[in-house]
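Lab meeting prep.
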Amino acid sequence: MSLSRSRVLRAVLACAVLCASSAMARAAVSYPNGPIRFIVPATAGGPTDVIARVVAQHITQSWGVPVVVENRAGAGGVIGASYVISAKPDGQTVLLAPSAFGVRSALDRRLPYDPLKDLAGVGLLARSPSFLVVSPSLGVKSLADLAAYAQARPEGISYGSAGMGSTGHLHAAQFAAVYGFAGVHVPYRGTPEAVTDVMQNRVQYAFAPGPNALPLARDGRLLVLGATSAAADKFMPGVPVVNQPGMKEFDADDWFGALVPGKTPMAVRQKLSAEIARILALPDVRKRLNDLGAEPQSSTPEEFDAMLQDYVATIRQLGDQMHITLE
């Protein structure tokens, strides 16, 4: 290759990089271009919905554009995720997903999309320990009491969750397996519905994030027996950690994050991520989420993508060990 031709090629490549960078910069400057929609793939009143509305309110105030929260529940979050994937990749349609999205991504081999390619991370919003709750009328006061109660019933006891492949499903199934009793899964449309039936003792236990568990426990309508990590002590001092003994895999808090269509420009993802991080650092937002049993936690888009990839791999391995699949 001649020297002159090499210089021309380098100049063309440099121009292409410059043009791409300029396009990304323009996308960030013009974003947002109209109303933003937060798609929550769960029912209203659940933790994802509550966190989404807190963040949406502050974005509206700071950016001066409407941020509308839409609940598109169903099929274990697949309906909401599919809707966002089909949207224009401009950052105007955002999926606000709980960790159940990651569980479904790991265990359901028939998904109509590739969650690690068709969606791109914006960042984390919060983490929350999951709390094992029962009705006070059940008559058990501890994890050992619940295990003994269940073991004394050959037909088993029932537990509720936000659906097949939800985080609550995984936690509750693992609890039954470790303590050696038959657990009968009763799937619901969302965590609020499952928790309501626990209060009525229609199902005997459930795992629920702080925003669903703690307010009802403080009112005396639920009894918290344990939690999935030591982080729960901040919200309910002295609550036992369920991963003792023999449950190391249980040390996994629920998380909540934001994703956009996979081809959304990185500059747009970064701009939205930075704004969410700013909001999560506000004292009133931190207090609001802490009061609900959630810890605000932000991340960069790159960090969220890496976290999700690791999470899906870990849950898939755990599902294989417990013979849990959604096929």
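Slide two material, second protein:
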Amino acid sequence: MKPATRIRYAARISRVLDYLYEHLDEEPDLYRLADIACLSPYHFHRIYRTLMGEPVTQTIRRTRLHMASGELVRGSAPLPEVAQRAGYGSLAAFSRAFQQRFGTSPGRFRSNRLLAPNLQEPSMYPITIRECPAFHLVALAHQGSYLEIGEAFDKLMLKSQSEGWLDEATRWLGFYYDDPSTTPEKELRSHAAISVASAITPASPFEALALPPLRCAVLRHAGPYSTLCDAYRWLFEQWLPQSGEQPGGYSPFEYYLNDPCSTQQNQLLTDIYLPLAPATR
């Protein structure tokens, strides 16, 4: 596919992503999606899969299950209600899909969350102190629930693929600026970002960001993104007060070590970077 054609198709598929994320609770009409992309249904399937790396049905299923996992972490709705909101006609079908994606049943996932980790445990997560290099970044802003930043990452991936920004050295990062325990959900601010080899000035709504060299505490979290909240609580409530360190002038950010589209969710690895004040001599 020629670069100009890829960019043109990416703009069309981006409109489809807008529609999908606004109608996640509805059954997708593939003819409607093809119409939004100004493509025939046959060509829509081919173009979407080429640019997104997965069929549209997988995007919908992946996103719905991610949101369901967040609901299981944060809420107490009965499992059949969670299954219905995730687009499944029965609890059995939802459980099979959840098991395949998360490596455990939704009931056990919730139970394990209720038996939440002991935040008083001083060595609950591995922590290292690192000197982190500077990065040039391209980013897309998101406002609202951090669990919903996936739309920004999908659009950033689509744009990056079409513009040829991705290579073997690319890092995927998330920047989170507000405390969800004190900030209304609709006001939470974040960025989905990728590292690039040199400074780029992308067209709006994408932004160029720069990350300077930083001294950071790095916590490695293993498991679904919906359980990262436990790691943050431990980092700020347990480790930081006892470490003798002081936070620096930058917000925490996350570095995603594997692909959430192709990795079972219980095997996801995320490094949380907490920028620190310079070491005292």
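Talking points for slide two:
The chain has two domains: 1-52, 127-275.
The first helix runs from residue 3 to 22.
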